[in-house]
């Protein structure tokens, strides 16, 4: 049926191997920066969402719903093609002087993922029974200290697994950056394919890299689940 | 805001955004987006059900390969799955495959892997006593699954299925990459043709996606509340 000659040397040596490695480098950079930024932004949005001041709460609510219910690809296109009308001149000039493709992809990934992270953090905090806060307050802790010593340490333990899941999604979603010309892993695999017609080899290599990434992250998560969440079983 | 935005590009191309060149030409735009999402959703419901049931099998020889299959697709970016279909389908079938069918295949396999997790969670959520009671009344294990456990489990899975459908609607935007003229592709086309209002175009389609996805997200929450209420009784 198939008269296809496999040639794995295409993707394991030479120029094309280097392309794939540089693509992986960019994927890792984009993912790492996205993870840090989206966590910080997500934390901020989660705090706003739980604020006692209703305008802030509403802002966070609209933010969450809007960015969660819009495709990431459209958000990437918006930042890449359409954001210039909304941003001040100085910001546009600065963005154009940098690597704008990378910046647009990073902004979109960060904002998109932060909306999911904020929800995970919020549900982690809400899952701690109200009585914990009441007990802490009646034991004389201030609101901030109760959060710091009683609520957050418990909430973080519950929130870590879904957060890691979001980080994994972010790493996979970073492949969409190829659509605006960021030369990350998927882009390079496509590139190798169009130069060599060795699509099977190129895509197998890229797929394996993504799988290794997710297997490693999933294994870490299982470790965490066994050690921290269910210590009696581990 | 006056003068900053010019939404005329939207009103001029409104039918093109909504249905593409239909009825003279093929369906496109939002219509095609919904078509892709709906077909993939129905197919991946059955895909997820089969994968979920197989991965709960008592036979390791079935369980392990199925889990490997599921985890492989869950560990891959969807974009990669679509590229794979794009190359593999014509090679395997020995003929060209329409792009929209390629995308439906990619979305279906990818989403089935996720749906299977919903199915597994739903089945595990039904107390073991139900299966034991069913078997002790003389049903075979598969009958206990089909007549007793699944009907209850499926009802609990409905909100998660709706959420997955929302993800699917968003994921159809990736059909853009192989040139299927759904909403995102239409938007880039109009953008390339007019060259003047990218901000307006992408805000417009973001809002269109949002309205549809938000409606289904709300539906899913409502269903969740209703099911919780029924369980409490």
Describe the structure.
- The complex is a heterodimer of chains A (234) and B (233).
- Chain A has 234 residues and is mainly alpha-helical.
- In chain A, 79% of the residues lie in helices and 0% in strands.
- The radius of gyration of chain A is 22 Å and the shape is flat.
- With 233 residues, chain B is mainly alpha-helical.
- Chain B has a single domain, classed as MetI-like (MetI-like fold, Orthogonal Bundle), CATH 1.10.3720.10.
- In chain B, 78% of the residues lie in helices and 0% in strands.
- Chain B contains ten helices and no strands.
- Chain B is globular.
- At the A-B interface, helix 3, helix 4, helix 9 and helix 10 of A face helix 5, helix 8, helix 9 and helix 10 of B.
Summarize this entry quickly:
Chain A is mostly helical. Chain A has ten helices and no strands. Chain A has a domain at 31-182: MetI-like fold.
Map the helices and strands.
The complex is a heterodimer of chains A (234) and B (233).
Chain A: H1 9-12, H2 14-49, H3 54-68, H4 72-82, H5 89-97, H6 100-126, H7 130-138, H8 143-173, H9 185-196, H10 199-229
Helix pairs in contact in A: 2-3, 2-6, 2-9, 3-6, 4-6, 6-8, 7-8, 8-10, 9-10
Chain B: H1 8-12, H2 14-19, H3 29-55, H4 60-74, H5 78-93, H6 99-124, H7 128-136, H8 141-171, H9 183-194, H10 198-232
Helix pairs in contact in B: 3-6, 3-8, 3-9, 4-6, 5-6, 6-8, 7-8, 8-10, 9-10
Keywords:
heterodimer, A: 234 residues, mainly alpha, MetI-like fold, B: 233 residues, 10 helices, 78% helix, 0% strand
- Main beta-sheet annotation of chain A: none
Computed structural class of chain B:
mainly alpha
Residue-averaged pLDDT of chain A: 91
What is the CATH superfamily classification of the domain at 31-182 in chain A? MetI-like
């Amino acid at each position: 049926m198939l008269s296809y000659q496999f040639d794995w040397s295409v993707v394991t040596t030479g120029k094309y191997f280097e392309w794939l490695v540089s693509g992986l480098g960019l994927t890792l950079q984009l993912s790492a920066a996205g993870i840090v930024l989206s966590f910080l932004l997500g934390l901020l949005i989660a705090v706003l969402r739980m604020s006692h001041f209703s305008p802030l709460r509403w802002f966070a609510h609209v933010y969450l719903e809007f960015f969660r219910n819009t495709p990431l690809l459209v958000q990437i296109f918006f930042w890449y093609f359409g954001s210039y009308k909304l941003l001040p001149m100085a910001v546009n000039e600065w963005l154009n002087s940098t690597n704008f493709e990378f910046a647009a992809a990073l902004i979109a990934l960060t904002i998109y993922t932060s909306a999911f992270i904020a929800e995970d953090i919020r549900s982690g905090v809400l899952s701690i029974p109200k009585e914990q806060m009441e007990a802490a307050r009646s034991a004389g802790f201030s609101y901030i200290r109760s959060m710091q010593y009683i609520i957050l340490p418990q909430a973080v333990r519950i929130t870590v697994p879904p957060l890691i899941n979001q980080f994994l999604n972010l790493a996979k979603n970073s492949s969409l950056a190829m659509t605006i010309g960021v030369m990350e892993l998927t882009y390079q695999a496509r590139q190798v394919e169009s130069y060599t017609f060795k699509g099977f080899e190129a895509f197998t290599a890229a797929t394996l890299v993504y799988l290794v990434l997710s297997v490693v992250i999933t294994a870490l998560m299982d470790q965490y689940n066994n050690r921290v969440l269910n210590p009696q079983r581990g | 805001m006056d003068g900053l935005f010019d939404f005329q590009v939207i009103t001029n191309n409104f039918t093109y955004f909504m249905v593409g060149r239909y009825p003279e030409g093929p369906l496109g735009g939002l219509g095609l987006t919904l078509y892709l999402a709906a077909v993939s959703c129905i197919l991946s419901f059955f895909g997820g059900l089969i994968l979920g049931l197989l991965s709960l099998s008592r036979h390791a020889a079935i369980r392990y390969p199925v889990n490997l299959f599921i985890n492989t697709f869950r560990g891959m970016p969807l974009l990669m799955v679509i590229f794979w279909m794009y190359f593999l389908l014509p090679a395997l079938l020995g003929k060209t495959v329409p792009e929209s069918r390629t995308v439906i295949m990619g979305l279906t396999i990818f989403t089935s892997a996720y749906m299977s997790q919903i199915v597994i969670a739903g089945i595990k959520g039904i107390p073991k006593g139900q299966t034991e009671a069913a078997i002790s009344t003389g049903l075979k294990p598969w009958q206990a699954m089909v007549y007793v456990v699944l009907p209850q489990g499926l009802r609990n899975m409905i909100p998660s299925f709706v959420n997955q459908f929302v993800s699917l609607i968003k994921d159809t935007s990736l059909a853009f990459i192989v040139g299927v003229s759904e909403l995102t592709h239409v938007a880039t086309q109009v953008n390339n043709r007019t060259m003047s209002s990218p901000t307006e175009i992408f805000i417009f389609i973001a809002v269109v996606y949002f309205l549809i996805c938000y409606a289904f997200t709300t539906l899913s929450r409502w269903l969740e509340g209703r099911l919780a209420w029924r369980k409490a009784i």
